[in-house]
Each structure stands twice: as C-alpha cells, then as structure tokens.
C-alpha cells in the first residue's frame, strides 16, 4: 500500500490522464487532433494558473476561497479601465488592485488572527459585492479588439495562455524551491511555532502568500476577460472549488508543508479532459459540477490515505 | 461519614513491579494509605512516582504485585475500573470541558434528569453541585464556565468532581505547581476538609515543605525502588533529601571543567520580571561558560529563558549584551544579537515535519545562502554548510532529502541544535536538550555542549536531570517560584544541594 501511494504521489495524475486519454480517443475521432489537444490544454491552464497560487497557500498551511471573486473583480476593472487608460496600464492597475485584496486577506489573517477560511470567504462576498457595485450590476463590453490577443491569440501555433502558464510555472517553481521565501513558506506550513521560534517573519510570509494567490487569480481574470471581451461582475462562479480540486489532485497535501506545482498543471489538464469528455457525450452543465465534486472527494481520500500510511510507516520504522 | 474498618487501611500495594523494555520502572514497591490520611510521595524525576500513579489509575498494569483496596484484592484493567473503585486522580492538566459550566463538569455523564430522563434537571444539578462545593467550603458559582476559571478554581472543580464520584482515594500530582501562595493556602484547607471526611490522599510534590506541612507519612522512591516510608513527625527535610538523592557518582560525564569567574561577561540580566512567573531575577553569563538552571515545574525557568530569547514578552527588566543595553522584542532580535535557542518542545516547535533534514538544518540561515537577497538558493553552498555541521555534530541520516520525522529523537535534536548553531550564536539557550532521547545520544549532546563551550560559546542549560547539571555546568542557579533561591559554583554544587534548592530549601 505504501509503495502504491508513493507511486501515486509521483505519477498518479499521469496515469489518470492516460486513462482519460484512452477513453476519449476511443469515444471521439476528433480527440487526437492537435487543435483539440491544444484546446484542452488551454482550458486546463485556467485552473492551473490559479492552482499555483493555491499550492502556495495550502503549503503555507492556509487556504484562499476568494479567488473566484478576484477573477471577477479583475474583469470589471479591466472593462472600465481599458477605454480610459489603454490596455497595458489597465492590466497593470487591475492586477495591482487584485493583489491588494490578497494583501488585505493576509493582514486580516495574520494581524487579527482570523481563520483563513472565514476571512477569505467573507472577502469573496465583499469583492463580489464591490464588483457588482462598480459595474452597476451590468456586464461591460470591451471594444478595444487588440485586447483579445491575450486570451485567443497564438504564437507559433500555440495559444498565448499556454505561454503565460509556462512562464508562471517557472516563476512559481523557482519561488517555491529556489528562494528563501519558498523555504519559509514550507516551514510555516510544516510547523508554524517552529518557524516562529526560528525567527522567521511568519506574518510577512503569510501576507506574501495571499498576495501571490490573488495575483494568479487576477492573471486568470485577464485571460478570461480577454476571451469574453466583456467585463462580467459575476464571472467564474464555483471556480474556487475547481482550483482547490486541481491543487489537491495535483498532490499538494492539505495539511501543509508540501506543495506540488507540476501536479497542479496536469491536474488542470485532467479536469479539462473530463469537461471535454462530458461535452462530447452532451451532458448538462450540472454533471460537470458533479464530476468536479467527485474528483475532489477522490483526491481528498487519497491525500488522507497517504497521510495515514505515512504515519503508520513512521511508527513501524519503515523508511519512506 | 463512612464506616472505617478496624485496621484503618484503605489501600495497600505490595511487591509492585513494572518493567518497560530496557527499564525497570518499579521494583518490588510496597505502599499503603490509611483512611483520612495524606501520604506524600516524593522522589526525583524518573524515580517511579508517575508509574505508580498510573498503575493506580488503571493506565498501566503491574507485571507483578497485589493491590488491596479496603481489604479486597482489586485489579484495574483500565481507568474506568479504577474510577469505579472510587479512586480519583487529579493531574496537572485537568480533564475538564472548558465550554461547560462548573456544575455540568462535576456531573458530566451523570446529569440528573427530568421528564422521563429526557431533559437535564438544571435546578437539581446546580443544587447538587453547590452542595458538593459547600462540603469543601469552596465559594464558586456553579453556573460559571470552566473556561473563565483560574487554574486554582479548575483544580477545585476537579476535587469537587472527585468527591461527587464518592472518591475514597484522591491522588494529587503536583497540585501546587501552578498556584499562587494564596491559592495554595486554600487548597490546603480543602485537603484538611477532605481528610475530615475520611478521604485518603496521595500527595505528590516537588516542594518538600508542603509534604511536611500536610502529610502524616512520606514515602521516598528512587530509581524505581522504595527507599523508605517515614512518619512526618519523626523525620526532617534533610533526611528526606538525602534519601531522594542517594549516592552521587561524581563526574561521570568526564569532561574537564573551566573556571568562569575571571572571564568577560557576555550577557547580563538585571531585575527581570514576568507577571506571575518570574520576579526580579538577575544573573551574568560569562564567555565560554555553561550556566545551569535548576528548578521544578512552576519555577519559571522556561518562562524566563523564552523571554530572554524574545519569544514571550517580559514585564520589566534589562538585558546587557557584550556590555551594552539591548532591547529584545522578538526572536529575530535575539538571533541578530547572537542568541540561539533550542526548545524543550521538539515536536511542537522544533522540527519542520514535511521538510527534509537539509531544509530543517538551514532554515534560519537560508537567506544568507542565496544570491540576490533571497532569490536563488546556492545549492552547493547549502550542502557544504550542511555537511560541515552534520559532521561536527555527527548527525546520522540516510540522505539529505530524507524527511526529518524519520530520524531518531537524538538525531532530530542534533539537527535542531545545528540549526541554531548555524545562526552563529554566541549564547546558546538549551531547554531540556536531552529529554526523551536515548543514553548514547545524551552522552553525545553532552560532549557537543562541552566542545561548544571550549570554543567560546556561552551556554545556558535548563535541565530537570540533576546529574546533568552537576557534571556539566560551571555554575548553576536554582529557581524556586520565580525567584533565585541559590547559586552554586562548580566547587560548591552537588546533587543534594540542588535538590534542596529547587524545592525551596536553602542548605547551609
């Protein structure tokens, strides 16, 4: 069992992708075409990008339930700012505003000692409200056509969102594994008291984490808005749960301390494949919701199993 | 009032032996208590007191020996059976539910019911609880939540609960360790009341004066054996102390000792106070010196040392480091100055569970091992630093990336000491560095401490193992109830004096 779980930890998500791939290839003649596969991967990047942020949050022992609201906030700000100050400035300012949401999350969690779940859930409601307020409850179309390049353009035949994801992956990978901040994030998630007694600035680390989660969410918002060419205050409902599913399925342990970014990429693609398959057999939207829920429960189950067996192995003195 | 049988003996344990793998915790111990008697049980850490209690409370089963309760032979397979035989144990950590009221806690699981046993009869429960408290002359509102009570009040609730369970024997484990003077007086009154009602009490305390004040008899345990039982009126504190200590084998740690008096002062603490824990403590720490701190639970040592490291605030006091006054408001400040700290709670605030041996060791200094202020870890440099530290401390591990939880306790402890040492500290504070690790690893940690001191690092060592202090330290300070009770130099210190000093006596 331990061996199986070890193996699953390493290649489990690949096996799931291969199984799903075989099914889809049999079910649809269109599946094994470059366009289809690129399309699936592009869809997968949306969740994966925010998944990177969520990996950091969960690794630090926290959680962020406000990502879907931040996506919508970014969308609304983009649609208002682009006609006024141009595309690049609008993107930069929208992203900075979103990062401020993360900063607020971090400050409330660390300085007031509020539980991250409650904090970010409340923040999600507040941000949704703010988005609706700013947009006057309406959707705001964007007429600047050049903006659509980000979400729908291609470079060398590969969609731009994939480049963005790869770039973010590299940045977050280096951040988590190669910087002192990354080590500190793992340390805080592993044992916060130990991190504190070792003189680490736990408050700073946590605030940074929530800023980074909001950053990834706002990048997602930029891509989505660019595809829709419309600012939608109710954008991305239920997206947070999808991101959490991707994070856990990708092998990041819920108990903190251990983050898996590459897993998040493949988990994103896997979820995207499920959606594609469900579309193929033309089932309704709520089946998609249902399937995400099931996948999350499966991922949590494996995570729990892994933790239990690891503990048992430690007690028995088996080296893992 | 109960009927008391002729011979007056409530509990008698004979020939109790308990063996754990590798250790004989109790060897052929006899122990008895009478109705309405306070019988004090004393001994150093590891003497076997807690094993004896755990046998009485049903947590452990003795390997041999008999327990007679009111003349009947009894056998406790679990704690429930012990409770059913009217034995109650009041531990240092209470078994109360903070979110419930005093009355609910007293009658938890046995609440008086009304309306066909559906609803709790609050009126009756509160009245019964009040009666219990009155019997002990305790003034406490039954409707208050336990979470709002002080430690002393919680203890009273525990005692009332024990009494409501019709306890004939109450075992109190260090009941006064965390109480204030006033609260201790109140506790003693309650104990006197219990005695009147025929309840027998086994009283365990590090504070000998209390044992003398309260008890009819004192039994001394040492190394799992019963050294003797004395009538309190016919013995002296000196006699009990020497029974507790026995013969000390001097210098079994072997190291050579250094003289510290003429060395320069590295750290000086003046008038240091922490509310309810430490009162006006001051001391000096010389360069390359090992300064020991001895004290029992409630002495305030840990609070003091944690506070000097900046982990908890102080009420008042000054700290001088290398001659100049410094403010330490956070652990970061302390580390910057060159003060390192190794926690006594290795699991709670030492090891970083999910991280590797390597990452655990370098976590404090990781920023200095990167390019561009934290951007890229210099992997090679990190490994070099790791290797040199793990060689000098002789840390044993399978590979660098092994998770730390798979190391033995001793090796985990070395990693944590190494972690602190990497921060280039000049002062190293060690709290119970050898707790819970095996004998071999202990000796190694002693060797490491001696070597560090020889290199000029000043060490503050707090330990509940007196031989460790006697043989390893250059000077030793005994704290008692938050005040310095005695200070010994290498020449004047021995185990007997330390025992006496940490339980409040001053030996001439």
List keywords for this structure.
heterodimer; A: 320 residues; mainly alpha; two-stranded antiparallel ribbon; two-stranded antiparallel sheet; 13 helices; 2% strand; globular; B: 508 residues; alpha/beta; 6-stranded mixed sheet; 24 strands; 26% strand
Explain how this protein is built.
The complex is a heterodimer of chains A (320) and B (508). Chain A is an all-alpha fold. Chain A has a domain at 45-266. Chain A is built from 13 helices and 4 strands. Chain A has helices spanning 2-27, 34-59, 67-85, 87-111, 116-134, 149-152, 160-178, 180-190, 192-197, 202-228, 239-249, 261-280, 285-316; strands at residues 140-141, 154-155, 158-159, 230-231. In chain A, the strands form 2 sheets. Chain A has a two-stranded antiparallel ribbon. In chain A, strands 2-3 form a two-stranded antiparallel sheet. The model of chain A has no long low-confidence stretch (mean pLDDT 86). Chain B is built from 17 helices and 24 strands. In chain B, the strands form 6 sheets. A 6-stranded mixed sheet of chain B has the order 6-9-10-3-11-12, with helices on both faces. The chains are: A mainly alpha (320), B alpha/beta (508). Chain A binds chain B through residues 174, 177-181, 183-184, 186-187, 189-191, 193-201, 253, 255-258, 314, 319-320, and chain B through 311, 330-332, 334-335, 341, 343, 345, 348-355, 359, 362-364, 366-367, 369-370, 374-377, 398, 402-403, 405-406, 419, 423.
